[in-house]
Amino acid sequence: MRVRITAGADDDEAAAIGAALADHVGETVEVYLGDQTDPAVVQDVEQESGSSAGGESSTGGNEGDGESAADLGPTERERRLRDEIADILEGGPEKYRAQLSEDGKLFVRDRLELWFSGEDSELHFEDGKFAAFDDWHPDGANTDEDDDDRLPADGLITAAATFEGRDVHVMANDYTVKRGSMAAKGVEKFLRMQQRALKTGNPVFYLMDSSGGRIDQQTGFFANREGIGKYYYNHSMLSGRVPQICVLYGPSIAGAAYTPVFADFTIMVEGMSAMAIASPRMVQMVTGEDISLEELGGPDVHMRESGSADLIASDEEHARELVAQLITYLPDNADEDPPKREPKSPAKSPDGIDAIVPQEPNKGYDMTDVIDRIVDAGSYFELRPDYGPEILTAYARIDGRPVGIVANQPAHRAGAIFPDAAEKAAEFIWKSDAFNIPLLYLCDTPGFMAGSQVEKDGILEQGKKMIYATSSATVPKQTVVVRKAYGAGIYAMGGPAYDPESVIGLPSGEIAIMGPEAAINAVYARKLSEIDDPEERERMERELREEYREDIDVHRMASEVVIDEIVPPSTLREELAARFDFYEDIEKSLPDKKHGTIL
Question: CoA carboxyltransferase C-terminal domain: from which residue to which, for each copy (predicted)?
Fold first, then answer.
């Protein structure tokens, strides 16, 4: 505290005023005379007589035996505070700490150490360590010494950090405190973190290990305007503004399960994580179904069946590695471009592309063999690989530039588009566009799958969403007709009608309403059936097939300027790199409207 008194006061008066004020306010007081710039007296509350600035005596300019303020150590009050902080950092009861190691999990603060230590990573500060302090600390309102009542930080940590050179907001549950459950003070911290992320425009990491809302303390946080329901409102406001990345370390049940599905990217850890709308016990009460948590909502369920998990990590270290890779493709927010890196040559030579792609439209091959010859070595990062595997969705780099790849996979069900594959692609396109990541479509599909089961599974609904996402994306888009582009597949895969910057054909390419066999059967079935001679009928079928293939051949499409160019496959990488570079700053706009109604 600084005070200024009249220049006419003498040193004894200044010292007396300083001592009285220091004793009253409980802090060091500097006393200035008149308009002097240096204090005449520096008086600490614990001193019997003040010491002057610069280590002089209590009166200006006179030597004395008073102690300098710079020489003072922490007071008992500060030592007590440090002890309280150390106690909070210990987390919940020790018996629950022991259970973590049995489950192969880290204590939450050790987890934060794993994430935010080392080169280019640091935990800067934490907010809300003392949340719910009065409810459990012996010096607070609760004098019950039962260890189970410990609520350090109310079981939820929020902090600001640098991760791999990027500033991020962090939330992490402490599973040793009431199984990471959420209550009023922790909810308040969570909401503040989200609201601050909207202001800073920095990514948000959710390190989830929560059993859900604290049922016995639900008053004050469940249905309130600023309660737990606000989580998902804030998730929605953050969606498309900043990347939200969630890693699941344990069971996330009921309300806690919504954060991972609201996040842009969700990683589950094998052997320890799960998410479900209700616990197995609740499921049994409601439906009578007897099921384990793993079967109900384990990683395999959400990777293969629901599509709610983007990746599965083998352990805690692997989870961090996956996020460290993922974030290299993402900007901090929607106002920025994704970060570039030094270009690398592909892992395999582009010279092999044409040999990989069969001329026969129904012969399978692995599209990743083509991608490995286009993208920078080591940059291919696939998401949701086991969900809708007929379409590949991945981030990669071409000449150092991040791109989002949407590619048909002929190695799975001929690359036909099923409902789950369409859903996966639509969400990936939508997210990539939100964060300004250019899109590359690699088309080799017979189109959307037909049949009664896919109709029940919503092929029209999911196909609509994929086409809508492709239509609405305003990032630079390049489409390559690798081989077949039949039916509405060419629409969903960024065909000429969907405002791509380029549509490039390889010499194996074909664009048609349907493939030759189906077309001949649809158009000429009756005429062919009237030919009695089998050899004559076979000759006619062959001629019709050859005529049809000539009509749909990529050369005809280039001649009619349906596509922009046919390129030698060995030059495809350099062609794409040049086009993405040229169209980097292209401006696109959507019609003036509030938003579309499809997604």
Answer: 339-592
Residues 142-153: tens digit of each pLDDT: 444 457 788 999
- The rounded mean pLDDT for the chain is 89
Please write the tens of the pLDDT for every residue from 440-482. 999 999 999 999 999 999 999 999 999 999 999 999 999 999 9
As a whole number of Å, the CA-based R_g of the chain is: 33
Dihedral sign, CA of 470, 472, 473, 477? positive
Q: How far, in Å, CA of 238 to CA of 198, rounded?
A: 6
**Between the CA of residue 193 and those of 183, 198, 300, 331, what are the distances in Å?**
15, 9, 31, 19
**Cα–Cα separations (whole angstroms), residue 446 to 414, 506, 545:** 7, 17, 16
Determine the average pLDDT of the residues in 92-106: 89
Burial 367-406 (b: 16+ CB within 10 A, else e): bbebbbbbbbeebbbbbbbebbbbbbbbbbbbbebbbbbb
Contact at 8 Å (CB) between 472 and 494? no
* Contact (Cβ atoms closer than 8 angstroms) between residue 196 and residue 211: no
CA distance 299 to 420: 17
420: Cβ–Cβ under 8 A, 6 or more apart, which residues? 307, 387, 388, 457, 462
Closest CA to 386 of 304, 308, 307: 304
Placement of tokens 């520096």 in the chain: 42
Check residue 141 and give its pLDDT: 47
**Beta-carbon contacts of residue 236 (< 8 Å; ≥ 6 apart):** 262
How far apart, in Å, are the Cα atoms of 8 and each of 14, 53, 338?
10, 19, 65
